[in-house]
Amino acid sequence: MRLLLIILLWTAPLLSQDSELTLDAEYAIRADANLFFGRGESTGTEYYDVAITSQPSDGVLIKLPYTQKGGKLTFDLHHRVGLSADYGLPAEIMTVVEVVTGGTNRLGTFTMLDMIGEDAAFDEQIERASDAEIDRYVTPMSRKTITITTQPGPQSISIVGRDLNIVRRGTTTRVDTPGTRIAMVSNIKFEEVLAVNPLSLSTPD
Q: Where are the alpha helices (DSSP H) in 87-178?
């Protein structure tokens, strides 16, 4: 019994640091098939285009499972860049996306700002879903992990584009036309919160 008490006392500070227990939970991506850009050749990760829109149904729509205590959604955000010879590198690119619920409640606006140089390259090759000429030079660029805390109950959320700002050759271009694809997302994951750690130890008087 004394040995068990000593072990508990030693491990209690470590346990108290993690107040939440989580479990990977299944979700469903309900985005239109034409938003699927492709799959990473080395990782198998799926990449989806993010278009400028005010309609959640036109974004990267994700159906989350029912949860009693909510959860945590994470995804990687990328610029969507067409690296043709006349693109005009180097360029400073600022991409702005928003995460909304199916009821258009805003869960967060996220900005990604990078300088893309003439030797720019993404960290993996993409096996494209389409060979359309308009997307011939398009690739994701850079990587920023976004984390969203979700509420208990069933929920659908959508990742939508807001605007894109590009500075190149001394000229600033702002893109905010609905339907324009300005970003990509990948590595989507969802963890359900199972419980809050109730452990607390006190010493007798």
A: none
